[in-house]
Specification:
The protein is mostly helical. It has a 5-stranded mixed sheet with strand order 6-7-5-8-9. The chain has a 4-stranded parallel sheet with strand order 2-1-3-4, sandwiched between helices. The longest helix has 44 residues. The chain is elongated, with a radius of gyration of 29 Å.
Length: 696
């Protein structure tokens, strides 16, 4: 007799009829609930992101390949979870996911064997099937148990710490308690019931397996080691006992089907679809709004949840509320109210209630976002928090809800073409006595050197500008500048929410590029770099864009320039968000310091404190900490105790390095203010300046 097992062992005809009734009823109720959520998603704008063919539901061949690649990478491969920091519970999540996936596939295969003419559940296949499901199922039970205990212990410890702080005058303890209370791990009772239900299903599944083996033993029962061990311990069971265990397990399975849409584990289903249709846009690209769209909707940006795309609304239901987004948020980490996980939950609630999104989230939280995309990078189910937030900002700005220094920045950008309000003629002040070639003089050039507002205005950034120009000359690179013809890229305006001011600047700059035949651009500003590279294509500018560290790194590799060689342990590098995370470039800055690395391809840095002669802070590469300047925050006031730059400075100085190397004018401005509060002995310098010193 070939190894196999009996289906519906000891279950009578009437009992099977009851089983099918309950199964279809619970699955039908589950489907009805899912359909209700689908109707909510359908409120949104059509999912143009899915890139389908004529029929909305039939993808093109290219789209189908993209769907499969996304599902393989982000769902089956769990790329984002695997790259999470250890304290996020990634190993626990992987046990639950792969265990659940194995049980789902196993159940599906068993159903195919039962209800189709193909009977393959026997022989060697059966033995491999039993062994695989038994082992991975054990991983599922362990993972769920781990999650339940972890949640209980963490929340218990947080409550204890808060109680101790309340009874103490210790400021340090109070701060620790505040951070503990603000921990992103959800404390919703539904979470405990969900984990308890999954754990119960897993345990009763093994109990049922053991009961089957105890009631009807076979020589091949060893192929399911967990069930076999349980059966050996419990001894023989009667037919009646087996049926009681069978029904007990099935009741919990039916319960699972009925409540699945209300549990967070629904994200496995929803995230599969959101991953498939994940927009292929670069992380740093915001979608433009057309005047036709404004005329049609009579509004700019998102006021109600229905103003988002259907993909965005669907992604809200994919959220598992794991808190990874909140854990990495620079605003939340310094005590601000912005909580990316809560933002997702609030928009999801407004999708049901119809309440204005800004009112649900709170305008205070919306304006605190630095658009650093740390939340987007961390999210396992690919939610694009920054897009969600900026779309609401667009609506607030259009309705005149922005005031103060940020509004002043918008007026300055519109009137002077400079976010700092400097006159256009001042853009050439840094060039005095440097013999800088200008496009308007008709010179031949390979690269347009895009200086940026900060690079032409801020004293520290001007040092970088001069250093880059000197290095390009030394290496024999043919370049030219626009001088007073250069205008702000519009990045600060767009991130704040003034979409059409950005578009005005983008179209004007694109016209200048066309006038001078610009094909390649190099810039020291990661924010300009991102806009020119990822967003200007929407306005006709087809450019090859380089951050200054990228071009300089190429020149070093070719031997046209020498890399800087800092004294071992003397220098720490701060990675700019819009270079390292948003545009995936971490290697070029390190190459300029003589360090070979592969952080571009490794989204989860090892956390090593040193790479060669370079000190590394805890957060580096794609996991860098934001300085707090992005998203227009450079021009907004904030309490001294809630400045992301202070937290970043503490981490950089904790390495013991005396030189902090930067590669962004915004980062330089923010960190300079924080470093001066800490020490007068720290040298803050751009990588271009270090390279210039090495090539004198």
């Amino acid at each position: 007799m070939q190894p196999t097992r009996e289906e519906f062992l000891h279950i009578t005809g009437p009992e099977k009829a009851l089983f099918y009734f309950l199964a279809f009823a619970s699955i039908g109720y589950m489907a009805w609930q899912i359909f209700q959520r689908v109707k909510l998603w359908q409120q949104g704008k059509p999912m143009g992101e899915l890139r389908t063919g004529r029929d909305y539901w039939i993808p093109t061949r290219e789209a189908a390949r993209t769907w499969l690649r996304n599902i393989g990478t982000f769902i089956l491969g769990q790329k984002k979870v695997k790259s999470s920091r250890k304290r996020s519970g990634a190993p626990m999540h992987l046990l639950i996911f792969y265990g659940f996936l194995a049980l789902f596939i196993g159940t599906t295969l068993l159903a195919i064997n039962t209800y189709s003419p193909f009977k393959f559940h026997k022989g060697a296949y059966y033995l491999a099937y039993e062994m695989t499901l038994d082992v991975l199922g054990a991983g599922f039970v362990i993972g769920v148990g781990w999650a339940l205990v972890r949640r209980l212990l963490m929340n218990s410890a947080a409550r204890k710490l808060v109680d101790e702080a309340a009874a103490s005058d210790d400021a340090a303890l109070s701060k620790q308690a505040t951070q503990s209370r603000r921990a992103p791990l959800s404390q919703n009772a539904n979470d405990y019931w969900t984990l308890a239900l999954l754990f119960t299903i897993g345990i009763t599944g093994y109990w049922l397996e053991a009961a089957r083996m105890s009631n009807n033993p076979h020589d091949w029962d060893w192929s399911a080691p967990v069930g076999h061990a349980w059966a050996t311990l419990q001894g023989p069971v009667s037919d009646t006992t087996y049926k009681i265990v069978w029904w007990f397990h099935m009741i919990w399975v039916f319960t699972f089907f009925a409540v699945l849409p209300k549990m967070k584990i629904r994200h496995i289903l929803v995230a599969t679809f959101t991953a498939a249709g994940n927009p292929s846009d670069a992380m740093g690209r915001l979608k433009p709004i057309s005047m036709e769209e404004v005329e049609l909707t009579e509004q700019i940006g998102v006021k109600l949840a229905k103003d988002y795309s259907r993909w965005n609304l669907m992604s809200l239901d994919a959220c598992m509320e794991c808190g990874r987004c909140t854990e990495v948020c620079p605003a939340w980490s310094v005590g601000k109210v912005l909580n990316p996980k809560q933002v997702v939950q609030d928009i999801r609630d407004s999708m049901v209630t119809g309440e204005p999104v800004a009112a649900k989230i709170s305008e205070e939280a919306l304006w605190q976002c630095t658009t650093c995309n740390a939340c987007v990078e961390a999210c396992p189910v690919l939610i694009r928090h920054v897009d969600l937030i900026v779309d609401v900002r667009r609506n607030l700005v259009s309705e005149g809800q922005l005031s103060g220094s940020a509004a002043t920045m918008l007026r300055q950008t519109a009137s002077t073409n400079n976010a700092w309000g400097a006159s256009a003629s001042n853009r050439e002040d840094w060039m005095k006595d440097l013999d800088i070639p200008l496009c308007r003089d008709g010179v031949e050039f390979d690269f347009l050197f895009w200086v940026g507002c900060a690079g032409a205005t801020d004293p520290g950034a001007v040092k970088t500008t001069k250093a880059v120009a000197a290095l390009l000359k030394k290496a024999g690179v043919k370049f030219a500048c626009l001088g007073k013809e250069e205008a702000c890229t519009g990045d600060p305006a767009r991130r704040v929410g003034e979409e059409f001011l950005f578009q005005e600047k983008a179209m004007a700059n694109a016209s200048v590029f066309e006038k001078y035949g610009v094909k390649k651009v190099v810039t020291p500003c990661p924010h300009c770099f991102n806009s020119l590279k990822n967003e200007y294509g929407d306005f006709g500018a087809k450019l090859e864009v380089f951050h200054h560290t990228q071009l300089l790194a190429q020149l070093v590799s070719k031997g046209q320039l020498l890399a800087a060689k800092p004294v071992r342990g003397s220098t720490v590098l701060h990675d700019p968000c819009y270079l390292a995370r948003v545009n995936g470039e971490s290697d070029a800055p390190r190459l300029l310091l003589g360090v070979e690395s592969s952080l571009n391809e490794t989204p989860n840095p090892s956390g090593d404190s040193q790479h060669g002669d370079l000190k590394e802070p805890e957060h580096h590469g794609r996991k860098t900490l934001c300085c707090g300047a992005g998203g227009g925050r450079m021009w907004m006031e904030e309490p001294p105790g809630q400045r992301p730059a202070n937290r970043r400075t503490d981490e950089l100085l904790a390495t013991g390095a005396k030189t902090v190397a930067v590669a962004c004018p915004f980062c330089r401005i923010m960190l300079d203010a924080s470093i001066k509060q800490k020490s007068d002995e720290i040298n803050l310098v751009d990588l271009a300046e270090m390279l210039q010193d090495a090539n004198r």
